[in-house]
Each structure stands twice: as structure tokens, then as C-alpha cells.
Amino acid sequence: MEAYTPTDQTRIHRRPERGHYDRALVHSIIDEALVCHVGFVADGKPRVIPTTIVRIDEAVYLHGSPQNRLLTTLAEGAPACIEITHVDAIVAGRSGFGCSVDYRSVVIYGKGEVVAGDEKARVLDAVIESFLPGHRVRPYKPSEIGATLILRFPLDEVSAKVRDIGVKEVDGDYDLDLWAGVIPLSIVPGKVRDCPRLKPGVTTPDYAREYGGPARSVTRPASAETKLTDCH
Length: 232
What we know:
It is a single chain. With 232 residues, the chain is of the alpha+beta class. The chain has one domain: Electron Transport, Fmn-binding Protein, Chain A (Pnp Oxidase, Chain A), CATH 2.30.110.10. The protein has 6 helices and 11 strands. Strands 1, 2, 3, 6, 7, 10 and 11 form a 7-stranded antiparallel β-sheet that branches. A 4-stranded antiparallel β-sheet has the order 4-5-9-8, sandwiched between helices. It is globular.
């Protein structure tokens, strides 16, 4: 199935033309994320917590300490709202109402399922591969696996919302003597800093020096790659 089925929770009502349920688009937005934000209710109070996220097939996974308030609450069955946003550009309009951002976002609703057994190590491997492809680590110790709580959230209720139109004004404002345009944004890795306690002979791997290149490239909507520097 190429698209997710909208539900009462995931159907986009505000700016419905920006709503998307395409499976490949949803996957690409999730896979590009280093961090998500998770909304939930604990002790009758709303909370939003940032954490890492990884997708494996048709589910996303959160992990952390068994003492983590977010995870323990969700492991007990509390519903979660998981959100990811990538800001692709600053949009400068000729009016305040014309100023905006181009973005890609995903919202996931669901309840977590506790991951156990050998699958825990597989998920942790996927977490590392998702944010640092090719990185090698030593085998996990049983105590480390035991000290990690992992929750699975099936991608049953999910939608994406995208703004990728750049400058959009009311007709009369296009004739004003004011600049308008788009400033594309991207995450740019800095120079790698080796651990000062590297064993002699251990060199910086290519995947670290070239981080952010083809190894971790994610396809964006075409319009997000070809922004004009003035209005269109």
C-alpha cells in the first residue's frame, strides 16, 4: 500500500493542501530526523520531551533508561503523540503575513509496545546506523541491554505536512518596492574532533570525515532543493 489511511486524528484540516499520507514521504521525513518530540500526559499534566528516534519498516522506536519518566509512562499504556519537523528555508515576504518557513513534518499517534529479547540489540544497532552510518561499536554487555527500555510504535496513525512553496503574497504586495525571497537552511557538520584517548594507530574513518554526504543523504521534495533567491 503506497499511502497511509487518514484517521480522525491524522486528517489535516488546517491547510489540507499541505497534508500528505504518502508512505515514502513519511518514511523520508522520519529517517532524516536526529531528534523527535514526544507529547504525553503524566500525573494529569501535559509534557513534551525530545529524544532520539529510529524507524524500522513500519514502526518507530524510542529508547532510554528504565527510569526515564517518558518511557515508563508510555510503557504503562499512555498514548503518545510523536512529532518531527525539518525547517528547510526561511521565507521573507513583503508583509508580516507573507513571512513564513518552508518545512516538512510528521505526526504519529499511538501506544508503545515494550521490546524484549534479542530484538533489543537489533534496535540499538539500527539507532546507531541511523545517525552515524557505518560506525563500529563493541558488542553490547548484558548489563547495558538490561539497562535499556525500548518501545515500538507502529505507524498506524500517521500523517505528514509540508510547506514548500516559497514566497506567496496577496496580489497587491507583489508590486511593492520591498525585497522578498527564500533563505535555504541545512545542517552542516563541522570538523571532526578525535577522542584524545584514541589507541595509537586508530585513524578517523571516512564516514566521520564525510558525515552529511552521500552516506546520510535523504531525498527532499524537489522544490526544497531548488529554491529561488527571490520570489516565484
